Amino acid sequence: MSTSDNRPRKQWYRKKVVWIPLLFVAYVFFVNSSYLAAPPAGSPFLLAHRGMTQTFHMEGLTNETCTAERIYPPEHPYLENTLPSMKAAFAAGADVVEFDVHWTKDGQFAVFHDWTLGCRTNGDGVTRDFTLADLQKLDIGYNYTADGGRTYPFRGKGIGLMPSLTDVLKAFPDESLLIHIKSNDPNEGQALADALQALPKERLEKLTVYGGDEPIAAVKSQIPELRVISMDTMKSCLIPYIAAGWSGYVPDACAHTQLHIPDQIAPWLWGWPNRFMARMEAVNTRAILVAGSGDFSAGFDTPADLDRVPATFTDGIWTNRIDRIGPVFPEKFAGN
Q1: Closest Cα partner for 174 from 257, 243, 95?
Q2: What residues are paired with 208 via a beta bridge?
Q3: 18-72 pLDDT per residue, tens
């Protein structure tokens, strides 16, 4: 056979080599493009981090920083993780309120942010070394200052304001809550599961628990129907999704959970936002959009921050300033 006889076959082969990758790219685009997907129905919801809180500047923040010593000048009278602050958050427009829990010496759960007491209160020592009754005698606003210690605007106003988990569940029997275990102790997870497992199914459906891998695994083992989140559950879902989600594949680990997704990372998820949300909704999972890279619970805390939320986003938005975001939120997303 002459060289000229092979020319049509070679040309066909070259065209095939070019078109196969192009067809693959077109397929991936079609499967994952939000432009070609119907926008999801509904509007986004607001998650108020620690209720109505006193916020603080983030410069030089580390895990050891006492944030009560660097608050901004107070704009409202509420302290985080208290019943009044949670009530105010819901009144301001929150759909979900997040709060922190610590296991106490007498086997109960105190609602408080820190592992130790010295930063915020007039007490000292490790939280779990005290009984709930002892903790509730403390002034939880004792050390908050916005001017380097010259004045303490909440001193004397936080006595008896530390609630228990039981207090919160009783005060908000129908609202959605996000419970944060502040340790990585599996025994604490087991104790929390013991405290929650007697709740009726319809109540558990409005609760989510997150925290360290070990306590969350213990909670999930005992109450498999409860929505949970940890670094392990996030990785188990998102790493394989990032690897193969281009095909529409959703890992089993993504089912019935919650994903906290920084808005700087979200656009890299296959199908973001419309197809991604539809895929997660199909497996009963919701996404919570947090701000920036996700460091130190950064949230959407000014009206301008909301401009970064996709217009068709219908899952949760994390905020530390429900007092600022709640009033403008309905108008901002009125068209959804």
Answers
A1: 95
A2: 178, 227
A3: 555 555 445 455 556 666 667 777 889 999 999 999 999 888 888 889 999 999 9
Contact by Cβ (8 Å): 47, 289: no
The alpha carbon torsion through 306, 235, 271, 23 (nearest 10 deg) reads: 150
Report the C-alpha gap between 229 and 111 in whole angstroms.
19
Q: Residue 50: CB partners within 8 Å, gap ≥ 6?
A: 80, 81, 85, 97, 98, 99, 100, 113, 320
Record the tokens describing residue 52, joined without a space.
């109505």
Q: Report the 10 Å Cβ neighbour count for 161.
A: 20
Per-residue confidence (pLDDT) for residue 13, from 0 to 100: 54
Radius of gyration over alpha carbons of the chain, in Å?
24
**Contacts of 308 by beta carbon, 8 Å cutoff, 6+ apart:** 263, 291, 300
Question: Quick one: how many helices (H) and strands (E) in the chain?
Answer: 10, 9
Say which residues have a Cβ less than 8 Å from residue 154's Cβ, sequence separation at least 6. Answer: 54, 74, 79, 141, 142, 144
**For residue 281, how many other CB atoms are within 10 A of its CB?**
15
Torsion, Cα 174 103 185 96, to 10 degrees, reads 20
pLDDT tens for each residue of 135-161: 999 999 999 999 999 999 999 999 999
Residues of the chain with pLDDT under 50: 1-2, 24-25, 27
Residue type, 99: F
Helices (H), 162-212: 165-171, 186-196, 201-204
